[in-house]
Design goal:
Layout lengths: L14 H14 L19 H12 L11 H14 L7 E5 L2 H14 L4 E5 L4 H10 L3 E4 L18 E6 L18 E5 L23 E5 H4 L7 E5 L9 E2 L8 E2 L9 H35 L4 E3 L7 E6 L4 H7 L5 E5 L2 E7 L7 H11 L1
Parallel strand pairs: 2-3, 2-4, 4-5, 5-6
Antiparallel strand pairs: 1-7, 6-7, 8-9, 10-11, 11-13, 12-13
Bound molecules: pyridoxal-5'-phosphate.
Pyridoxal-5'-phosphate (PLP) binds next to α4.
């Protein structure tokens, strides 16, 4: 933070100087997610059309809480929900700032429907246990099978539960079996892999249409800047139970957030600019990247590949036990996770500009 004030400044340096100071720091001290070597996290380089419209929305300080402030964005959000919900067998929903909130919203709605506890696999995202905690509901984590999917034989009594299945687990990118569960409410956390529904891999998410609600992070595999996610519901009136009117509001406030940005605008613009086919091509390129890297890893006897990538996430480790030391050299290219208490490298192919030959060369030479 050299060059930045350590105390709250009494007098300012002016817009131009402040912009120069901060923009230089942002550009020099942020990871380049679109770099040919970047393949580490569920954070894509956002598409230019989307990033530019986030900036324009900010200039107008759009607020989805007040229709009269954001008439265009309000119509856009309704249209984007109308476009996307049917892909998941859903009928209504709204945007929110991330799938942490989308999961909280779904579990809150499930509680309003009578669910008394939350059940998910041990590999479900922490936001699920966190939501249960916030809502005062007991949380039960079910073991996963050898493939990393929730082990259905251990589900037990679910009739009063909200069961959360994950489509694309955070650590391994695994899709839980999406067959129906006889529970009070079935939620699918498709934060990561939901966008596969736009692609030729759509069938991997078959069964999702049986859910009562679905969460998707648009700031992950729809290449949007943060904060952009969607919570979708099957029942057309599902949002009534999570909407609150107020004397100062023209229309009831739906969901957890009050004021929120017009994140649907950059997403709709992305679809208009690229088409569904253009977005699908980007996601399919990421799938091909993950498969290519998995093949290289599997062919090298120094490495162990955990499983073939199902949703462009893969895990590997070194058979000589040096994974930790190698990961320290690969920060930025590779991330880490624990599987069954052991350390594994984690690659997430969210970057369409990645160059797998160069990434593999870097991994191989660090090993
Ligand atoms: C499966 C899954 N669910 C939920 C989340 C939380 O999403 P967000 O970071 O958008 O709040 C994540 C984040 O990585 C995730 O991987």
């Amino acid at each position: 933070m050299q060059g930045f004030p350590t105390e709250l400044p009494l007098n300012g340096i002016g817009d131009a100087a402040a912009f120069a100071l901060f923009s230089t720091a942002i550009q020099s001290r942020s990871a380049r997610l679109g770099d040919v070597h970047a393949l580490a996290h569920m954070d894509p380089p956002p598409l230019d059309i989307a990033a530019r419209l986030v900036g324009l929305n900010a200039e107008f300080n759009q607020n989805m809480l007040h229709r009269e402030v954001s008439p265009f964005a309000t119509e856009v959000e309704a249209r984007v929900i109308d476009w996307l919900a049917p892909l998941f067998g859903m009928r209504c929903g709204h945007f929110c700032s991330g799938s942490t909130l989308a999961n909280l919203t779904a579990i809150w709605r499930a509680r309003e429907a009578g669910a008394q506890c939350v059940i998910a696999s041990v590999d479900a995202h922490i936001s699920v246990a966190k939501a249960a905690h916030i809502l005062g509901m007991p949380f039960r984590a079910v073991a996963v099978n050898v493939h990393g999917r929730l082990n259905r034989t251990q589900l037990g009594d679910v009739k009063d539960a909200v069961v959360v299945l994950t489509a694309g687990t955070t650590g391994r990118g695994v899709i839980d079996g999406l067959e129906p569960v006889a529970c009070r409410w079935l939620h699918v956390d498709a934060a990561w892999a939901g966008p596969l529904r736009l692609t030729r891999f759509s069938a991997r998410l078959d069964g999702i249409e049986q859910a009562d609600s679905v969460a998707i992070s648009a700031h992950k595999w729809l290449y949007q800047p943060k904060d952009s996610a969607i919570i979708l519901f099957k029942s057309p009136d599902a949002q009534d139970a999570i909407s609150f009117g107020g004397a100062y509001l023209a229309t009831p406030n739906v969901g957890v957030q009050g004021s929120r940005s017009a994140a649907a605008v950059p997403l709709m613009a992305t679809f208009v600019a690229l088409g569904k086919s253009g977005l699908a091509a980007l996601i399919e390129r990421n799938m091909a990247h993950a498969e290519a890297l998995a093949a290289l890893i599997a062919a090298d006897p120094r490495f162990e590949l955990k499983q073939p990538p199902e949703t462009a996430v893969l895990n590997w480790r070194l058979v000589n036990g040096a994974t930790d030391a190698v990961l320290a050299k690969l920060a930025g290219t590779t991330s880490r996770t624990q599987i069954d208490g052991a350390l594994w490298a984690r690659q997430v192919a969210a970057n369409p500009n990645a160059d797998i030959t160069r990434i593999w060369a870097q991994i191989a030479s660090a090993s």
